[in-house]
Amino acid sequence: MDYVRRHYGREVSRREAAVYLEQRGLVERPPARHEKPVRRFEAPAPLDLVQIDVMYVARPEGGYLYACNVLDDHSRVLLASVALEEQTGKAVLEVLKQVVERWGRPNRVLTDRGTQFAHWRGRTAFQKFVEDELKAEHILARAKHPQTIGKVERFHLSLRMEGLDPAGYADVPALQQALDRYRGYYNYERPHQGLGGVFPADRFYGMSQPLEQVWKRLPEPSAANQGVFLTANFLGRRLVIAGPSPDQLRVLFDDELRQPVARPEAAGGESLA
After folding, report:
1. What radius of gyration do the chain's Cα atoms show?
2. Rounded to two decimals, what is the model's pTM?
3. Of 55, 120, 125, 241, which is most buried, counting CB atoms within 10 Å of its CB?
4. In what order do the strands lie in the sheet with 64-72?
5. Cβ(172)–Cβ(214) under 8 Å?
6. What is the tens place of the pLDDT at every residue in 63-80?
7. What does the CA dihedral 197, 148, 160, 179 come to, rounded to 10 degrees?
8. Which helix (H) or strand (E) holds 162?
9. pLDDT value, residue 164
10. Going from the N-terminus, what domains does the chain have, and what CATH number goes with each?
């Protein structure tokens, strides 16, 4: 539904989408589930909190490669997705250093209790960098409780389902190419349900509220004319151009000045490796 709304300017309810997919045999109705209420939290601003985790990626001939993923908690922007030969503390620390160099210093860093991040014998190099050099808070997830880093864990699932070849990758360059391709799609083209249907980049660059306002004012497009919908971050100001046709455009320009927290990436994403 979010994809249709964002790319075609049309509102589709969950029921309409479910009926459409079921009628064409694309999905089966899942059995009813009674789930416990989910406690949700969200950082108040970009780079206030970042989540870091490492996932396994199979090699066709056996064994594993690894992907170190760094996610901004507030916007869900994927700050880095780096292919690794080994999941060592040194490799993960280098990823974090490059994230800081490119995007800026986070206030808090959330990880699990893997040995790359923490050790019972004393502070790791990762912890020393976060706490001593960045002057940031290192938050450790509860033991055996992956929900604490649920956003990056959920990203891993999306990446496996949408961006990776189930057969695996033979080497780091091949995996990195796949990660870069998905990173550009995830940040700039994929509507995020947890963000109300906007792209992660919309929220990171402070554009999600103008988009929501414009959606409500757009007329229903005809089959022959899907309308125009363009967004941009213009020198820290939020710009939205939208309308039913190229000769009937509205321009919304938010005069609330803000400093961009990072340089926008190319649509295809860039490797940090």
Report:
1. 20
2. 0.71
3. 55
4. 78-84, 64-72, 49-58, 108-111, 137-140
5. no
6. 999 999 999 999 999 999
7. 80
8. helix 150-162
9. 95
10. 1-37 (no CATH), 49-191 (3.30.420.10), 207-254 (no CATH)
